[in-house]
Design brief:
Blueprint: H1 8-19, E1 24-28, H2 34-42, E2 47-51, H3 59-71, E3 76-79, H4 94-122, E4 126-131, H5 144-164, E5 169-176, H6 185-189, H7 191-200, H8 213-219, E6 231-234
């Protein structure tokens, strides 16, 4: 199950997992995941569209139930869905704070808890991969809720790994760098910020959603069976500079 699979990072991850042989439940909220499902099906894969607003506390159970009804079990959970709202911290509204924390952090916990419990009861393990961020390590500017949520995702990843590794459930995270998606469209369009960002990235380019594919497949496969609680940077070298 891949949340936020309609476009961008989630779509690329869903397609990569399908290419590796997984049957994929593709989640969407404001945008339908049908296009992603069609790409998977046209390539000979198996996909199922699910939808729901992860800003609502009841949605994670609804999504898990839909996926189990279609596939019978969940072996891999990719917590990718996220949102961002920008404003100076002094002016940041409580509404924006709650909305971002609910989608980016609380839904990650709720989905992981539901899926993890079933993996434990089943007794044959599984993989949970959370999408963190460079702002799991850095503070950012005018995105206090996003930075707080992604810092929380990194710590939640470690906390769940500590509890569930003994059940052969690998909980890890991927921290993407500056990726060419709709979330960064404003930065890409700002000539000054775009130049500053590119100057800082040793790889010399923005990341593409497909750059996450290998990391996602690795952390979802038996190749990562002894990797627990790790936050894997896919950032073109940004954080090491």
């Amino acid at each position: 199950m891949v949340t936020g699979a309609s476009t961008g990072l989630g779509a690329a991850i869903a397609i990569a997992l399908a290419e590796a042989g997984a049957h994929v439940a593709c989640h969407g909220n404001t945008r339908s995941p049908e296009a992603t499902c069609e790409r998977i099906k046209n390539a000979g894969g198996v996909a199922h569209a699910i939808s729901g607003d992860l800003g609502i506390a009841e949605t994670p159970k609804h999504l898990v139930d839909q996926t189990l009804e279609r596939f019978g079990r969940i072996d891999i959970l990719i917590n990718n869905a996220g949102t961002i709202r920008r404003a100076p911290a002094a002016d940041y509204s409580d509404e924006d704070w709650v909305a971002v924390i609910e989608v980016n952090l609380s839904s990650v916990f709720r989905l992981s808890k539901l899926v993890g419990k079933q993996m434990i009861e089943r007794g044959d393990g599984g993989k949970i991969v959370n999408i963190a961020s460079l702002l799991s390590f850095q503070g950012g500017i005018t995105v206090p809720a996003y930075a707080a949520s992604k810092g929380g995702v990194a710590q939640l990843t470690k906390a769940l790994a500590n509890e569930w590794a003994k059940h052969r459930i690998n909980v890890n995270a991927i921290a993407p760098g500056y990726m060419r998606t709709s979330n960064t469209a404003a930065l890409q369009a700002d000539e000054t910020r775009n130049r500053q960002i590119l100057e800082r990235i040793p790889a010399g380019r923005w990341g593409e959603p497909e750059d996450l594919a290998g990391a996602a497949v690795f952390l979802s496969s038996p190749a990562s069976d002894y990797v627990n609680g790790h936050v894997l940077l896919v950032d073109g070298g940004w954080l090491g500079r």
